[in-house]
Amino acid sequence: MDGRVCIDQIVVTETYSSGIPKLATPTNLLAPSTNYFGFTLSWYPVTYATNGYTVTLSPAEGNSGVTVSGTTATMTGLAEGATYDVSVVAKGDGTGTDDSEAATLLGVKTLTAPPVSEPDLMYTVSASALTVSWSAQNAAAFSVLAWTNKPVNIASQNFASYAANGTVPEGWIFENGRNHYTWSDAPVDFRASGSSQVDQWIGTPEFGGPVSKVSFHLRKVSAVTGTFKVYGSTGSTNQADWVEIKTLTNGEIDTGDYSIEEFENGDSLAEAGFTRLFFRAVKSAGAFAFGTFSVTGTGVGKEPVYLTGYGPSPTDVNTTSVTFANPVVGETYYVEVTATGLSGRTESKTISVPVPAASYPAVISVK
């Protein structure tokens, strides 16, 4: 044995002291008041802590805030039903006193509110009254919007929900690639490839009257081999019933806004009586993007007319039903009920209530 010693690692720790005495560690940390998204914290005052206190929250939420006032702190912007640790340090003045050690309160939990769900709407309708009712739930509060629709001569769609997360607008039919673009003026994609996706199309909802003009934005995303076609029907979604209105070849298409008021042969679109439109890309290469859509024509769109006291902003109600006197025969009423839970979370449901020509008591449950 040669007497050698082998050392794998050496860790040198240097402890430095400023020579300034530390303030006493805060004591008696308490969280006497919690809510769904925050809590308050209190502690005993520390002698000579004239510079106040530093309060640290763990984990720190992205939108959380800590406000310190004397020997209390208020935490806001936290998650509902979550657990946090919170520490308090008394701040020294840097000359006569140094910061204290941290005092930590573990496991402070925010409150969890009972859940809310979509209201389970039911209605009764007669010649004299229309009533919409629902069940109470978990101390939720309720608000109501109610309206009828009047025909207007324009309807539009910006596809904002599709651009944001791929949600197809209500009433539309999308048989496209379902791989949306983020362009606000043209989020609807005709870009899928492969034999099953070469022929792609989308269809509008059925409008309330005949279309006399259609406008849209079309973007030529890349070199395209194929065509972009516009069709109409008198309501049917069956492709056998589509009537071709316009064909754009890849050589004719530039990125821009398009408006169509007549067929290729010059006949007026208004005279065709189309209440539904379809847009189809048949291609073997490249891609189109579509958006900023609108149509004009007699009664093609709908505009809400709010019932007195129930719109355009939601009206808070202290009951689980609303009644409207003397509903108009032949009219359809729309009632939206929103349940708001104790923590502010909401769930909404809309019911449509037709008033038949021969009104009689009826009960229909919509789940």
Radius of gyration: 33 Å
Describe the sheet with the most strands.
8 strands, antiparallel
Q: What overall form do the CA principal axes indicate?
A: flat
- Low-pLDDT stretches are none
Order of helices and strands: EEEEEEEEEEHEEEEEEEEEEEEEE
Number of helices: 1
- Structural class call reads mainly beta
Distance between the termini: 87 Å
Portion in helices: under 10%
How much of the residues is beta strand, in percent? 35-45%
Q: Estimate the mean pLDDT confidence.
A: 90
Number of strands: 24
Topology overview:
Layout: E1 30-34, E2 39-42, E3 53-58, E4 65-69, E5 72-76, E6 83-90, E7 103-109, E8 122-125, E9 129-133, E10 141-157, H1 160-165, E11 173-175, E12 188-190, E13 199-203, E14 213-220, E15 225-233, E16 243-249, E17 256-260, E18 276-285, E19 288-306, E20 315-317, E21 321-325, E22 332-340, E23 346-354, E24 363-365
Antiparallel strand pairs: 1-2, 2-5, 3-6, 4-5, 6-7, 8-9, 8-24, 9-21, 10-19, 10-20, 10-22, 11-13, 12-19, 13-18, 14-17, 14-19, 15-16, 15-18, 22-23
Q: Any key phrases for this structure?
A:
eight-stranded antiparallel beta sheet
Describe the structure.
With 367 residues, the chain is mainly beta. Helices cover 2% and strands 45% of the residues. It contains one helix and 24 strands. The protein has one helix spanning 160-165; strands at 30-34, 39-42, 53-58, 65-69, 72-76, 83-90, 103-109, 122-125, 129-133, 141-157, 173-175, 188-190, 199-203, 213-220, 225-233, 243-249, 256-260, 276-285, 288-306, 315-317, 321-325, 332-340, 346-354, 363-365. The strands form five sheets. Strands 10, 12, 14, 17, 19, 20, 22 and 23 form an eight-stranded antiparallel sheet that branches. Strands 11-13-18-15-16 form a five-stranded antiparallel sheet, with no helix packed on it. A hairpin with a 2-residue loop joins strand 4 and strand 5 (72-76). The radius of gyration is 33 Å and the shape is flat. The N and C termini lie far apart (87 Å).
